[in-house]
């Protein structure tokens, strides 16, 4: 048995028994880790107030090889993001980001860029005015880091680079690719070249510069459809928080 210590975000929790719960952490050094926090639900537990969803802290856990669930020893709180949790909309988006990381990332596959993305996301979230655009930026950057982002510059079928003549492109939700008009079929979903270029730009833009980007309602709807389809294609499931987020965002169209 090894004792591991690393900084971590708590991205998901669910009960294991009356007194214990399973915690899903995304760690700086070891990727996604699932661990049992024993006695955490007891009134006098040393973990009370520490192991809340979204919290960031210094995690110490026991690791046993070939075991899916490890064991939490200590979790020293660094930030509980109370300003995010106090705002319904911010908390809704933060929960979605956490669930998305849980769905996209495999246990034990360390990816420091994902940890860094979560760090920047929670620091920037409370400053954002356009939460829908911020969500698209998070989705695009996570897809890119995880190796699932489509090529926004060339056709996924023939490989030809898009030109100014490609006014309308198409999205193939069965492969997660964007294709040119020549390679499209009636079953594919139409996608404006402007929205395609916008996704490429957002993917490469720092969060603090997102406010400079302007989008139309058509851009927002097309990006929302393409990215939610991509996420479903790669995770093979529909995220619960995404369904709730759909209701929140629908009120803003």
Topology:
Layout: E1 2-15, E2 21-27, E3 31-37, E4 56-63, E5 70-79, H1 82-85, H2 88-104, H3 112-125, H4 131-146, E6 168-172, E7 177-179, E8 189-192, H5 193-203, H6 217-235, H7 240-250
Parallel strand pairs: 3-5
Antiparallel strand pairs: 1-2, 1-4, 2-3, 4-5, 6-7, 6-8
Helix pairs in contact: 2-3, 2-4, 2-7, 3-4, 4-5, 4-6, 5-6
Please list the strands of the largest sheet in the order they lie side by side: 1-2-3-5-4
The largest pleated sheet is described as: 5 strands, mixed, barrel
- Topology as a string of helices (H) and strands (E): EEEEEHHHHEEEHHH
The secondary structure category is: alpha+beta
Domain tally: 2
Query: Can you tell me the CATH superfamily of the largest domain?
Result: Recombination protein O, C-terminal domain
Residue windows where pLDDT falls under 50 for at least 5 positions? none
Beta-strand percentage range:
15-25%
Number of strands: 8
Q: So, CATH architecture of the largest domain?
A: Up-down Bundle
Radius of gyration: 20 Å
Shape category: elongated
Considering DSSP H and I runs of 4 or more, what fraction of the residues is helical? 25-40%
Summed up, the helix count is 7
Highest-level CATH class of the largest domain? Mainly Alpha
Mean pLDDT: 90
Give me the CATH fold name of the largest domain. de novo design (two linked rop proteins)
- End-to-end Cα distance: 53 Å
């Amino acid at each position: 048995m090894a004792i591991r210590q690393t900084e971590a975000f708590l991205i998901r929790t669910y009960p294991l028994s009356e007194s214990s719960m399973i915690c899903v952490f995304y760690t700086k050094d070891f990727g996604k880790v699932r661990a049992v926090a024993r006695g955490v639900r007891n009134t006098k537990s040393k973990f009370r107030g520490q192991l809340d969803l979204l919290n960031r802290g210094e995690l110490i856990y026991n690791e046993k090889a070939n075991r899916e669930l490890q064991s939490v020893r200590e979790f020293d709180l660094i930030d509980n993001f109370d300003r995010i949790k106090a705002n319904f909309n911010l908390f809704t988006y933060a929960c979605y980001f956490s669930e998305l990381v849980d769905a996209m990332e495999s246990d034990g596959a360390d990816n420091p860029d994902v940890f860094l993305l979560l760090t920047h996301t929670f620091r920037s979230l409370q400053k954002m005015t356009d939460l829908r655009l911020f969500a698209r930026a998070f989705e695009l950057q996570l897809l890119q880091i995880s190796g699932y982002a489509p090529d926004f510059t060339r056709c996924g079928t023939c490989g030809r680079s898009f030109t100014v003549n490609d006014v309308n492109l198409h999205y193939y939700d069965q492969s997660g690719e964007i294709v040119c008009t020549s390679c499209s079929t009636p079953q594919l979903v139409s996608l404006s070249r402007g929205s395609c270029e916008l996704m490429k730009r957002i993917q490469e833009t720092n969060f603090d510069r997102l406010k400079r980007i302007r989008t139309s309602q058509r851009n927002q709807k097309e990006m929302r459809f393409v990215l939610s389809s991509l996420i479903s294609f790669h995770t093979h499931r529909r995220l619960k928080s995404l369904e709730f987020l759909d209701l929140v965002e629908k009120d803003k169209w």
